[in-house]
Amino acid sequence: MSDLSIDIKISKVSESKIQSVDFNNLTFGKVFTDHMFVCNFVDGAWQTPEIKPYQPLTIDPSARVFHYGQAVFEGMKAFKDADDQIWLFRPEDNFNRINKSSHRMAIPEFPKAYFFEGLTQLLRMESDWIQKGKGNSLYIRPFVIATEPAISASPSNSYKFMIICSPAQSYYAGEVKVLFAEQFSRAADGGVGYAKAAGNYGAQFYPTSLAHAKGYQQIIWTDANTHEYLEEAGTMNIFFRVGDTLLTAPTSDRILDGITRKSVIQLAEDNGITVEVRRVSVAEIKEAAKNGSLKEIFGAGTAAVINPIAGFEHAGDAFELPKLENSYASFFKEKLMNIQYNLSEDPHGWRYGV
Ligand code: COI
Fold it and tell me: Any idea which residues bear N6-(pyridoxal phosphate)lysine here (predicted)?
């Protein structure tokens, strides 16, 4: 890919809207920066990419994305250190994953040089939108949509690859309690659960709204065949601390190979915390909650970072989790953020300077 000449066409806004943004009161994903990256796939090739003012798109109503959900996305974050240097966290993994998702959805893969050059130029242009200080970041949303105006149910012959950016603080405001899924499923064997396919997320909205009505913010999805094993939370991978051991489900074609998930596993290993990557049953977690050995449940994801779970319910049994002084959740959050904000060593080379 490196032999591609990367000529990005750039047009800038005449005036930034940054002055109108209250960076201390951000709702996740509501405010977008001044510019966006767009690259069209037509006639069998990705065309010259553009960075231009953030604006609505004009897309034919018959475009396949609207009818068949042929769309994938990624979630990444940019951080700024005290010297105004911008950092990404393991961006190569996002690049590989969007192409893995695209492959599964019959979308042509995006060239690596375009991805990194587009991201770099866009982030440098939007640097003022990346606020310093732990907890502040710029959430980056690369995505691909099928744009061919045709409603036969087959892969599109045209696509848009785009990157939009949104200043972010926390994803979940307040306590997160979860329901363990008993009836609905997120993903099945041989399906698209491992991909960041748009429909994986849309399909969770209805069951999650039922959970909301019962006072739970999220569902922890269980395996579709038996509902006996805990898999992921949809916006996050999920970890259980039983005694001092960390448990998490192995990735599979049903579970997203989360970048925060694998970073937590690595950090646990680096810090002498035993991690068991294996199937985790609903029964063992309920039993551990009853006998007091379940100390923590937390989610791990790009948007959510590390999110402690305050309680859960399954089959009418509700459990509260203890509030720990020295939780693994806060330990991993601190370790991760110190790497992300260039406040500590980066032994695994996860930081990527922009
Ligand atoms: C992310 O953590 O970046 C995700 O993709 C989850 C999202 C649906 C907010």
Answer: 196
Residue nearest to atom 5 of ligand 1 (CA): 75
Same domain, 132 and 281: no
| Residue 121 CB–ligand 1 contact under 6 Å | no
Instruction: Pick the range with the lowest mean pLDDT from 135-149, 160-174, 223-237.
Output: 160-174
- Of the residues 170, 204, 224, the one at which a domain ends: 170
Residue 334 CA to ligand 1 centre (angstroms):
20
For the chain, state the CA radius of gyration: 21
Question: Mean pLDDT for the chain?
Answer: 96
| CB distance 168 to ligand 1 below 6 Å | no
Cβ(69) to ligand 1 under 6 A?
no
| Residue from 302, 305, 306, 307 whose mutation best tests the ligand 1 pocket (most atoms within 8 A of CB) | 302
Residue-wise pLDDT tens digits, 87-124: 999 999 999 999 999 999 999 999 999 999 999 999 99
The domain of 230 spans 176-340
CA count, 13 A, side-chain hemisphere, 318: 8
Residues 141 and 203 in one domain: no
**Nearest ligand 1 atom to alpha carbon 302:** 2
Report the number of distinct structural domains present in the chain. Answer: 2
Query: Does one domain contain both 184 and 122?
Result: no
Q: 92: CA distance to ligand 1 center in Å?
A: 17
Residue 145 corresponds to which tokens in the numbers above? 């949509």
Q: Assign residue 296 the CATH number of its domain.
A: 3.20.10.10
pLDDT, residue 307, reads 93
| Contact status, residue 312 vs residue 181, Cβ threshold 8 Å | no
Domain end (from 119, 147, 170):
170
pLDDT in tens, 207-254: 999 999 999 999 999 999 999 999 999 899 999 999 999 999 999 999
CA of 325 to the centre of ligand 1 (A): 28
Q: Are 230 and 285 in contact (CB under 8 A)?
A: yes
Q: CA distances (Å), 233 to each of 67, 98, 136, 223, in order? A: 26, 20, 23, 12
Same domain, residue pair 159 and 219: no
